[in-house]
Structures are given as structure tokens and as C-alpha cells.
Write a structure and sequence with these properties.
The protein is an alpha+beta fold. It contains three helices and eight strands; from the N terminus they run H-E-E-E-H-E-E-E-E-E-H. The longest helix is centred in the first third of the chain and has 11 residues, at 6-16.
């Protein structure tokens, strides 16, 4: 198993804690919208965290490789480091590789990976408090 650094471990914990998230890995940054963090702009992280994050998600899901897209389950379990340690329930993860970006969706239910409704998008991108 490859070593995962503190930064990757914290980011993985944020991805898998209570709630859901959608992430976009571009050529310059990782942008993440969390359902548990009500804000209109994504949280951004250094691109150097991407390989460790993706590898750990794949390891947890027992995925060896990704061609274009794969969907898998992780958990339940515990992840994180220091004060950023979270227990997490079973989650569904979809990783889609596109030409210029990688999209990662983490959801509580498999069917929600396909949900592109405006209400769900607002809930993930802007937080549950802003959607009534």
C-alpha cells in the first residue's frame, strides 16, 4: 500500500464524512463542493493532493484501474488524521476521466450518482441550508 500524506488523508476524510460532495480535478486545482459546507464557491486544494486522493479512493473501493469511468462502494470505515478523523458510512463513488478534467462524485445512494436535477445540484454546490 502506498503512503498517504496528511493533506491527502484530511481531504479523503472530507470527501467521505457525513454528506456528499462533487469534485473537479483540473490541470491547476482540485475544486470541491460539499453538501455539509453551505457556500456558493467550491473549496479548493493543491493539485499535488490529487494522486493520493484518487489512489486511496480506488484502494478503498478495490478498484485496480479506471478507463473512462467507474462506480464503486467504499466503507463503512474511518479515515483522516489528527483532529480530522471521521467515521463514514457506506458511500458510492463515481470517478469519470475526461480530456481536461476528472470528476469525482461521492453519494450516499447509488441512484443519486445519476441525479442531475437542479435541486440536487444546488444542494451539493450551495449547501442544504440554501435549498428549501
Amino acid at each position: 500500500m502506498s503512503h498517504i500524506g496528511e493533506g491527502e488523508s484530511k481531504l479523503l476524510a472530507f470527501f467521505l464524512r457525513d454528506g456528499e460532495c462533487t469534485a473537479e480535478i483540473s490541470d491547476s486545482t482540485i475544486s470541491v463542493w460539499y453538501s455539509w459546507l453551505p457556500r456558493p464557491l467550491p473549496s479548493t486544494y493543491f493539485l499535488s493532493l490529487a494522486p493520493g486522493l484518487v489512489c486511496q479512493l480506488m484502494r478503498l473501493g478495490k478498484v485496480d484501474r479506471i478507463a473512462d469511468e467507474t462506480t464503486f462502494q467504499v466503507g463503512p470505515g474511518t479515515t483522516g488524521t489528527g483532529r480530522y478523523v471521521f467515521d463514514f458510512q457506506r458511500k458510492w463513488v463515481r470517478i469519470r476521466c475526461e480530456d481536461e478534467r476528472i470528476i469525482i462524485k461521492v453519494r450516499d445512494k447509488r441512484r443519486d450518482l445519476n441525479d442531475v436535477s437542479l435541486r440536487r445540484a444546488c444542494k451539493i454546490f450551495f449547501g442544504a441550508a440554501s435549498v428549501r
